[in-house]
Amino acid sequence: MSEGGQRGGAAQAAGAALGAAAVGAAGLGAAYWACMSPYSQLLGEFPFRAEGAGRSVALTFDDGPNEPFTTQIAEYLEERDIRGTFFQVGRAVLKRPDVTARLASRGHVIGNHGYTHEFTNYLTPATLTADVRRGQQALISAGVRPGLYRPPWLLRIPALRAILGEHGLRIISGEFCHAMEVFQPAPERIARRALAKIGPGSIVIFHDGFDGRGGNRASTVRAVQIVVDRLLDAGYGFTTVDRLLGIPAYQPDPV
Q1: Exposed, middle or buried, 118 (CB in 10 Å: 0-12/13-18/19+)?
Q2: CB of 188 within 8 A of CB of 220?
Q3: CATH number corresponding to 56-245
């Protein structure tokens, strides 16, 4: 083969490799959008905002209970007659069922956020079913029977909707307050990004824990305070997810 032919063959091979990489990247992007985006409805209804809700917002908190941060957030909200929605991890609930029970008794809503919060447990129907069930059992043992479920990382597989139906649960999305909140940047940064996203009917996701394993959430606590005060000044009101969407927060007790 001539030198020119060799160069042409190399160019074609490089082009094919780049094309394959582009296709692979596009495929990964499409899979992420379908299965992990807070906005995608491709696998069924996944409410992240309520239409026609007026200047009303639902504040939600994932990955707890995690003391003292869960209680610090709850008490700050209660001082302003606001109630939040706490999507809690079963294994964390078993460590502090008193916190879960106290939140519910004060009017906050408790939702199911799985049991382990370990990524691989949400990839197959069998492991997902076990995780949802164990999370629900942990919450029932703390005195609540949630009707709402938020998947860890917002990860959905096609079987999820049927699994939730078998357990009497409805799926809830939301908008993350800040993409890096789990790493606890400065409270003002978290609050600034959250406020830029929030509008009428928003469901906002904060984290009072980290994967159900605890962690310092002091920046989140302060960010919540900033966000609440700014929104109150702007004429917003607050409610829980169930009231915002007009759906039941809890399942009835079995007869």
Answers
A1: middle
A2: no
A3: 3.20.20.370
